[in-house]
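Morning run. Coffee first, then this:
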Amino acid sequence: MASLVVVQHKQPSSAVLQSSFSDFNGARLAASVQYKRKIWQPKGALCVTASSAKKILIMGGTRFIGVFLSRLLVKEGHQVTLFTRGKAPITQQLPGESDTDFSDFSSKILHLKGDRKDFEFVKSSLSAEGFDVVYDINGREAVEVEPILDALPNLEQYIYCSSAGVYLKTDYLPHFEVDAVDPKSRHKGKLETESLLESRGVNYTSLRPVYIYGPLNYNPVEEWFFHRLKAGRPIPIPSSGMQVTQLGHVKDLAKAFIQVLGNEKASKQIFNISGEKYVTFDGLAKACAKAAGFPEPEIIHYNAKEFDFGKKKPFPFRDQHFFTSIEKAKSVLGWKPEFDLVEGLADSYNLDFGRGTFRKEADFETDDIILGKSLVLQS
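And here it is:
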């Protein structure tokens, strides 16, 4: 049986580590990182401006983006309910988060347990509760969104986490929000969801991140590099390593989600959200090393077409140029990312991997295939 319950505060685990150089409000970087600014300012601080309180439902919210978003919303005074299957704890104290902040958050967050693919339950439970705003963080298919809209005919705003992966591959970059999309992409469900929201006349806002990184990241983005740096291994990068891509910090994304809430300028709009600058694959490897205090890595380039990796994925990024313009979000919303890349990677390392926590164990199988052939060719 699904139920709406207040999650009671639990005493923080003694396993939570404290750091001398980082906290939840942003990374205080290790001494090895060189700063551009003379005076350091905390990054990603959880400071928000007051607005009228809303009854907000977050679809998802216990893994990555929603963890940071829900905290911002609670701090702003909103009543926040997480809709999840209940397989993961609704609250967990984050590294560097004070006992007081964690206790305050835990006492206020609500939980609606259920499967979003159980459409009848979604409709009955949401219509019974009633919500002003829905943040859909984990929606992948339009069919999963229809029952939510049916249950909440008076919904004020539907805020959707889409993806920059919907854009059609092109030689002309960066991608703008008006650019052609790919109806055959693996993110076509997100495209169909955006179309559904538009066709239903919903007051929606859709954000399209590129690659998201930061503490708790369950996709092997920065973690892939950190594993290799920690092991002192060469880093295999496909082709020339000069492919240009873009990363955005999860705390900057969470703040963008906050800035579109109740914002008339965000009504029925789509925004690219990511970091300010672009980076090459080789540059990303070097930035990860600098952020985590490792020596500059040895980089091995290879031609992926010369290998058969089976179902294994040898590199965490698509082997192409892939980046967007974030000018619309900056000009329309007044949003701007706070983290530059090295500072953001340091925040991720110091609050996560550097504490010995990560989502996936190191797997160097494809690396060894690549490096083995490289050694043969060299000999």
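The chain is about 30% helix and 15% strand. Good start to the day.
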